[in-house]
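Handout for the seminar on molecular recognition.
Each group receives one record of this type.
Step one: identify the two inputs.
Step two: read the structure output and locate the region that could contact protoporphyrin IX containing FE.
Step three: write two sentences on what you found, then compare them with the reference statements printed after the record.
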Amino acid sequence: MLNLWLWGILPYIVLTIFIGGHFYRYQKDQFGWSTKSSEFLEKKRLRIGSLLFHWGILFVFGGHVLGLMIPVQFYEWLGVIEHMYHIVAISFGLPAGVAAMIGAIVLTWRRISVKRIKATTSASDWLTLILLIAVIVTGLTATTLNVDSNGFDYRTTIAPWLRGLFIFQVQPELMAQVPVWFKIHILTTFSLYVAWPFTRLVHVFSFPLRYLRRSYVIYKRRIPDQAIKNKRVS
Ligand code: HEM
């Protein structure tokens, strides 16, 4: 029963809050939908922390897509055996996770140690950092404890469970034998998703792609050639 509740029902409650929360926030607080940049208050530590965190998380995200969204059968078809996959996953995943963690710690330390930043930090900002660090630490712990590739394989358990949720094929039984650290990691991510729409993390969905092809900014009206000639004649 607990299995069904945690891995069959709870994920949909979390997903509903995540999606509904974003719509609610967009309706109620469009002007607050921002990264709330604090760059003008302090730059140096922000640059180090932000770069480490964002690049780390980007690779962690890529690793999660490769490990959880792509079925193990596809790798087998490519000839990538379990041991090979595991070595690559660990060699990229662990450094990326550690970089993201160091970045998050630097960003937290910056908020604690710089007076002006501390004064402008809201409760939701603290919560965001705490949850991010908790998710990263539990992820790293699960990976480290499973570093021996003869151990548990999440690509035949967690991955199909997760993919099943998106197509409404609920299979909580796949989670029954999953080691506790992976379960803790996933439940911690659930709390992050519930808080997400009410924090500055909403900026993830406003990646400024339009910047790449932003239209020209016109500072001065163009005077037609004929008007210039007329001016010269007169
Ligand atoms: C439902 C969502 C998620 C699931 C099912 C999940 C599952 C997993 C699994 C199976 C691993 C082990 C990977 C390996 O050993 O190769 C892992 C590691 C990890 N996870 Fe997650 N995860 C989720 C969301 C997240 C999120 C949102 C974050 C960060 C904000 C995150 C951060 C990490 C980190 C840092 C690691 C350590 C290894 C690495 O860097 O890839 N996870 N996760």
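Reference statements: The domain at 2-233 is CATH 1.20.950.20 (Fumarate Reductase Cytochrome B subunit). The mean pLDDT is 91.
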